[in-house]
Specification:
Number of helices: 17
Radius of gyration: 22 Å
Largest sheet: 5 strands, antiparallel
Shape: globular
């Protein structure tokens, strides 16, 4: 979606990346599960899975939609007429539900990196950075977030803006909010966020385009993240994360800074294990910075670079060839990027793309 012109706000207002597990297509990341900050949702009426599905009833006559509208009208942000007008115009997309029900595929690092941090991504990163260097460098300086990291995130999310999605986000979120019970509350919340976003941006809610799960623009922000973290870099009154590289770069940098990025620090360092070291108890731990380097050393883990004993870190491993593993310590900045996408392979791929640009090394 190119830079949007200001459109009259249709009385109707409402409703993709981010949402299934990590399986990459050549040259593009498949949309991911929504980030942790996007998972928070308001209390909403319980979804009645026994009700006639929206695929049969349509939106306007659906019992779950009606309860949702009643609840939202009571909150006072939008009128009943606005919601009714929206649901009259929203289109149900059965293909989106089919995509969501496809089983995810877990792949080892040596396969994952081919499509996500291989030669094509490195070449694309150099080209995109060269074409937009002045604005990206300015953003990097202002936020204290490396230009290389900003470029890498844009590359892995949407192949430098080539694959931002073609679904109307309103249709995607309405469909998933009322025909995907497992995540109904999340998508209903994002639908409300989209209506609010459309009002803030002075845009027609149906003008927003994105992935089948509602993620938008080059950085693939869900509506809630858009409202929280997107930035109007050039001061034109709009946060255009589709076609304005300054807004995109600043939005990615703002997200990272607000989630704890530390200027000048690395994302990860390699590690080795002492002979006989038993790390099975901690290698499968959730990605959280609950242990110090000193704790990890006590397990027989040897950092490949000098780290302070009180620095927080998480141990993880990647399968670099069938049956062959390498170990790493993820540091504070690792955890920051991980919050953008809950995959250790994703974070490592971002780091590899960033490092391919020849910076100080992350």
């Amino acid at each position: 979606m190119k830079k949007r012109k200001i459109l009259p706000l249709a009385i109707c207002l409402a409703a993709l990346s981010a949402c299934t597990a990590m399986e990459a297509r050549p040259g593009q990341m498949k949309p991911k599960p929504p980030r942790a900050d996007e998972m928070k949702k308001e209390s909403r009426p319980a979804f009645d899975a026994a009700a006639v599905p929206v695929s049969d009833s349509g939106f306007a006559a659906n019992a779950n939609v009606r309860r949702f509208v009643d609840d939202e009208v009571g909150k006072g942000d939008f009128s009943r007429a606005e919601w009714q007008d929206f649901f009259d115009k929203a289109a149900y997309k059965a293909d989106i539900v089919k995509i969501m029900h496809r089983p995810s595929t877990s792949r080892p690092w040596y396969e994952f990196r081919t499509g996500n941090s291989g030669r094509a991504k490195f070449h694309g990163a150099r080209r995109f950075y060269a074409e937009n260097r002045a604005v990206i460098d300015d953003v990097a300086q202002k936020y204290g977030v490396p230009a290389e990291l900003i470029v890498a995130v844009i590359g892995i999310e949407t192949n430098y803006g080539k694959n931002t999605g073609s679904f109307r986000v309103a249709d995607a979120l309405a469909t998933l909010g009322f025909d995907y019970p497992r995540r109904a509350g999340f998508f209903q919340n994002e639908l409300v966020e989209l209506l609010k976003l459309a009002k803030e941006e002075g845009s027609d809610v149906f003008a927003f385009k994105g992935s089948y799960a509602g993620a938008m623009g080059m950085p693939q922000f869900m509506p809630s993240s858009y409202r929280k973290w997107a930035v109007d870099y050039d001061g034109d009154g709009h946060r255009d994360i589709w076609g304005n590289v300054g807004d995109v770069a600043a939005s990615v940098a703002n997200y990272m800074k607000q989630h704890g990025w530390r200027t000048g620090e690395k994302i990860l360092v390699p590690a080795t294990l002492d002979t006989g070291a038993d790390v099975q108890a901690i290698i499968g731990e959730k990605t959280a910075l609950t242990r110090t380097v000193a704790d990890l050393k006590a397990y027989g883990i040897i950092p490949g670079e000098t780290l302070a004993d009180d620095e927080k870190a998480v141990l993880f491993k990647l399968e670099t060839a069938p049956g062959v593993f390498e170990y790493y310590l993820g540091l504070n900045n690792f955890y920051t990027v991980w919050q953008y996408n809950h995959s250790r392979m994703y974070v490592t791929a971002v780091r590899d793309i960033a490092n391919s640009l020849g910076g100080p090394g992350l």
